[in-house]
Fold:
Amino acid sequence: MPHRSDAEEHLRIIRSLMEKATIYRAISAEAAAVGGVLAIGASFAFGNWLVAWARPVEPWKFFALWLAVLALAGVCNAALLYRGARKRGEAFASTGMRMAVSALLPSFLVAGFFTALLAPLGPSLLGTPSFPPARCYEWMVTIWLICYGLALLATAHFAPRSLWWLGWAFLIAGLAALPQMILAQSGFLGGSGIYDPRRIEEIIALSNAQRWMAGTFGLFHLIYAACTWPRRARESDVAEMP
Amino acid sequence: MFDFEKLDKLIHEKGRLGIMTLLAARPSWTFQDLKGELELSDGNLVSHLRTLHDNGYVAVTKEMLDRPQTSYALTKKGRQQFEDYLSILEQILKVGRSGQ
Structure:
């Protein structure tokens, strides 16, 4: 006859598996890999990584570039989530998806608000002077990192552990980004006899911002993809099934 | 007094209990997804799935999407057996509490 402890153990297994089964992964490993590659590619192509050859870029181009990367990665993620839902015989707009969207939305709205405010168009519409481009790059990267980290952490109660780690990584990076960029700037300017400090300041700020984007949205997503990539079963074992 | 012999021994094994629980939580699971969640070896998982399938608890669907894919779902009988199994576990807990 089964003991009570035996029954409790089995019920514990059932509960824990039921919870696992309702976990929703808002970012698939494949989409993270695509997003990571896009971010590193965009950063490298437009990033002024080599300061000696760098030229200043208008802030709107910086925003447009990363908006395009976000749109591409978002479409790719949606397509992969749709494919996954279809495979499992679930609706795309499942309960998990709705929970994820409502958890992600507030942080994305905050990021969108500050992007609009800091973008050159925002201040001019308000009739105020635009922010200096160097400050735009630094603050935007900081806000994007922090908001994205908070968005991922908002899904923690139904997301897999890996997304929770990813959220913390972005949040910590966001908190570290601004001081690092300001310090890097002052160190460079202090030690150089630069003819036009403001122009150089823009170039350094843009270069730093792009490195942060590559190191976080690029590298973090690639690490996440590598850690969560679906393991494939051996075809021979599957073929043995009736 | 409750008849504990009614407890389904087929489901009571931990590996198969895991499979039945996941299949009860979601309409359909692929082999890869089951393997990822349960962390069983391929051979173990295949063996448990075969046992459940042979006893009419699990239905197997083979599809050819971009590559061959096998997915699993609970049958009506499987779902009923799982629900019965759960209610018997609850009974065991109740009896255990009242005996304390």
